[in-house]
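Objective 1.3, modelling of assemblies. Example input:
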Amino acid sequence: MTTAKPTQLKPAAPSNPSVGSRSGGVFSRLGIGAKIGLIPLAMALPIGVLLALYVSSQNADLAFSNKERVGVQFLSPLKDTLESLQKHRSSSGLVLIGDRGFVSAEAASRKAVDATLKRLEALSAQFKSQVNISEAVAETLSQWDVVKGQTNAGIISAPGSLEAHTRIISLLRTTLDAVANQSNLILDPDLDSYYTMNSSVSTLPDLLESVGRAQAQSSTIASSRLINEAERASLGLILGQATGQLKELKNNLGYAVQGNASLKADLETLSQSAQDKTEALVNLYSNRVLNTVNLTTPVRQIYDAGTRALDTIYGIYDRNVVVLDRLIAVRVGQLEQARNLSLLAVVLVLLLVVLLIAAIVRSITRPVRQLVEVVEKVGQGDLSQKASLITGDEIGVLARQVNGSIDLLRETNRRNAEELERTKKLQSNIGAFLSVTMDISDGDLTQRGIVSDDVLGNVVDSINVMTEELGYTLKDVKKTADSVNLSSNQMTETTEDIARGAQATVLEVGRVNLSLTDISTLIRQTALSAEEASQLAAQTLSASQEGTKAVQDTLNNMVQIREQVSSVAQRMTSLEARSSDITGVAETLNTIASQINLLSLHALLEAAGAGEAGVRFYTVAGEVRELADSSAEAARQVATLVRSVQADVLLVSQSVLSSQKQVEAGYLVATQTGERLNDISKLALNSARLAQSISLATQEQVKGAAQVQQVAQTIAGIARESNSTVERGQAAAENLKVLAGQLEQNLARFRLPN
Amino acid sequence: MTRVMIIDDSTAELKMMESILTSNSYNVTPILNGVGAEEQIATARPDLILLDVVMPGRNGYEILRALKRNPNSKDIPVIMVSSKGEDTDIAWGKRQGAVDYVTKPYTAEAVMSVIKKYV
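Predicted structure (tokens):
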């Protein structure tokens, strides 16, 4: 089984949206002004298209009207051709029926037809691109050539000629319609020009054709002086048509005047003139040709009347064309003017728009640029400037916000500067305080840190308090150390005294001991001697009974005894003196012990005052005191014992003295033995008794001496002990002194408050 | 008339406090700077002391402690008047023995309301 390793998710790369990212696409590098400028540019495209469409529509109207004018140019030549053809039709018809009076008219009109057709041909060639009637003109020319040839050759009948002419004229009419159609004349948009055009393109040609046909037919009838029914019907129809067409012409012109009052003078004159001539002609032809059986009116009169009427209508046509041309020209002018005005208006509007946009752009970019300058300066750390252009729009809000931010930054900077100043001051205060703490740690406890008004102040003061308190405490310690020093000095001196005393005591006790040993020995000897004396006395007693030899021995012994007793007496005196000395020493010991006691009391008090440091010394001092008490007690006991020894010694001395005397007396008796052997036994007995008592006394003395020696040993022991204790005390005092000295030395590094 | 001693290193502060107290019928003794102030206080024994903290030579806390150590002056109430206005400053001042603490800048009303608590 495989365990799927968990996909380790790589941490997304930290994105920094504000730095380096360029959003905004292709326009990101453009300034705001350019961007805003692009907006109308973008809008200018459809507007431009609309304007172009508008102008082009105006241009189209203009082109439309201009094309109409081209068409108008064809009207008079076409009419002229029509006119010449009509004249030729009438004249050639008359010539063909044999009326030679019209040959010149026929020739003139034939030339006129040629000329007008030529002109028409040239015109159609000139404007072929706009109005294409070349084919129709060519057809007309070819038909004309046929008719002209037939007419010249006289191979055509008068009605045939009439028909052929009429066909050509009809062709011309078609051509005229083609011109009207192609040149937009038929689509003329204005009332006046439309009806004027309609008159020129339709009504007047129709009227002309009716009048022309009426002239031709009437002339032919008048020339033949006969009229058949068909001719009558045809002419009647033609005349009726002419009357109707005249009415239509009047209507057309009336509509044109309705559309344009300024045409009234011109067109009403034309209308009236056309009416007068046409009605006159119609009346003439009706009365003289159509409705008469007596066709007497000369052909020339009939023909000329038609010609006059036609000429008048031709004139009307020409004037009508002039009016039409003028109307269209005016319209073209107006259209041109309108187009120019439009262009001007467009240009002006565009100029205005450009200026307006420039103003708007400026009104946007100026504060933005200023804001950007200010922000850039802020970015460089220069807060001296603020946006002064405060507009009422979002940029104004932005500017106010930026100004607010600058104020904030200024305030922050000011605070930072203050904080920095405070920090600097604090650092300086800390520096000064550190220097003070160094002085304090070097032992100058009179130094105090400066309590500043920053956060350090209280800390400094707390150290000040500690330093102050430490100073006062150390001052107390120093005072105590001084007094301990003084006391230990005194104690050392005192203990030295005590030691000296103790040593003297030991020495003295040793001496006493030695003396006592001697005394004891002597007493023992005395005792032995006494014993011996006792035995000798006994022996003397027996020897006295034995003889003189014994007396001599006794005498010798007596001498020895006398010497010994004398020596004992001397020793006893000495023992007495020594006893007195011991008493003195014991008293001294007692005094010293009292002093030690007193000193140790002092020491106790001082040790108690020294606190912890004095605990050991306190114990020692206590022990010293106890020992001093013991010493005193022992000294007193010594004194007591010595006194009893003295009493005993005195007794012994007295005994010794008395035994000395008795020995002396015995000696005297012994020397007198020879003479008084009898008394010897008595004396010997006495001697024996005395010796016995001497022995007893000396035994007592030995006991007392042993006791004295014991006491002396005790005293010596005590004195030694006292000495060692004193030495310990002395050592302690020395130690104390050393410690006090060290303490003073340690305290010396502190500078303490006064 | 209640006697009040003011100790401050600023003549302006002294004058201002003096005028406030005088107008409230106090007998005022202004002392410029703290050096030697304790002796004057121990001698004069005023009823109240207004004491600045930050002063050259001898600061208010030192003077306050010296006053509290001296039996002649330890019972005189001392109010600290200082621009050091942090809580720790006030706590420290009271810890050193001040009865109250007025922070500069002060108003006459504020100062008087504190002073009247003690004299």
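Chain B touches chain A at residues 53-54, 56, 59-62, 65, 82-84, 86, 88-89, 92, 96 (CB under 8 Å).
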